[in-house]
Model the fold of this input.
Amino acid sequence: MAYLIAVDIGTTSTKSVLFTETGKMVQRTAVDYPLLTPVPGAAEQEPEAIFSAVITTVQQVVESSKINTTEILCLSFSAAMHSLIAVDSEGKLLTKSITWADNRSAKWAEIVQKEKQGKEIYLRTGTPIHPMSPLIKIIWLREEQPEIFGKTAKFISIKEYIFYQLFGEYVVDYSIASTTGLMNLKQLNWDREALELANITERHLSRLVPTTYIFPSLREEYALLMGIPSYIPTVIGAADGVLSNLGVGAIAPGIAAVTIGTSGAIRVVVDRPICDPQQRLFCYALTENYWVIGGAVNNGGIILRWIRDHLADAEVLTAKTLKQDPYNMLTAIAQTAPAGAEGLIFHPYLTGERSPIWDANARGSFFGLSLRHTKAHLVRSMLEGVVYNLYLVLQALEDFAGEINSIRASGGFANSYLWRQILADVFNQPVSIPEIYESSSFGAAILGLYALKKITNLEQFSQEITFTFHHEPILKNVDIYQQIIPIYSRILTKFQEEYAQISQLQKEV
Done:
């Protein structure tokens, strides 16, 4: 039997997942780490802790599975997007890993967005002008942390940091590079004008390679810690979002992948780079022949966590007493309210928003609240609001990718029957939940097999994916949601005019 180890470097944890050569998941291990918020707007992580998690999870998955390590074909990597780390000429850390959720560069995103050059850079690089973008983070460091900027020899992502430790060189795949706002998608090279805007050169960035690039051997010391032979090849892999599409089999026309975890996204695969003149969508590389366009949203499961922490003390206590999941209790309460929450509409922008409005100042709001509404309506409207926002992204996607007729969904939301059905009803599309819930890891494994030439095309596993749940739209609910969505959109347009002022007032308090 031959195996692959897929390593998925995520925002809240790193996972190592063992797959057979035929795509069966054998073993999974994970190590969590915190998101640090030392000052308002910050969202950082310790790179050393994440590197340790990579070593530990690989070691644990090998040990717990008791496989013969000579049967391991390769390691293949997936990683979260938009992180930035500054290192000096000796490779020493000058910053922590500044994650996609860090909002301290919001001011500079607004400045660049207002300039014509900003839109032109987006149209060449595919990364919207937003605080998540490493390009904007570099500008923020230059303007507000000049002592760090001046000492920086390389600006890298957390994935590049891991690979520098494992292999001693700065290398970045086209996929992660395409999420920086610094790579020209058509030329597959660093974009000259983006570099000039950031006041850096190519020497400040890593060497670009395809997502199928293979490192022939690991540093011996780390191979020993992982418990694997150093000669096992490592496939550099890609970004987690694009690999999730591959992992759920959403790479054919008409099939979209939806992920709702802490945040969320909807993505489709196209055969060439495509950028939206209205700047609603991203475009990231999977391989040179497969590109993923879509929209990422800040507010997914984090909305349900906010409800749990601030509105559900009684439910949390009851769940603890009954040894149940408080999230299941909350969605059960929401299910007692009808579709549409009797006219209660929630805009889910508790942490600003990325797609489709790309506004870090955006804030959440209820509209239509009356005395007749209960906690059940509040919770249901918040679940619906997350899906309404994703539906706006879907509409933008269909302008470029054609009609979507099937949804493959993954993420923590898939544990909720209600939330899965809301997605099917709002989108008016069938929704299927793949059996392998580690979609980014599975995508990394498929890409690893492709890089090793064990499979001839990336579609090979698509027809073999099995599903745990399938939802068809409920027509009476579809009718209700089709009436609400235009109202949701019109209110959003009006509220957008006020977000900046509200955000400023909150900062002054």
Observations:
- The CA atoms of residues 160 and 427 lie 37 Å apart.
- The chain has a mean pLDDT of 95.
- The two ends are 61 Å apart (CA to CA).
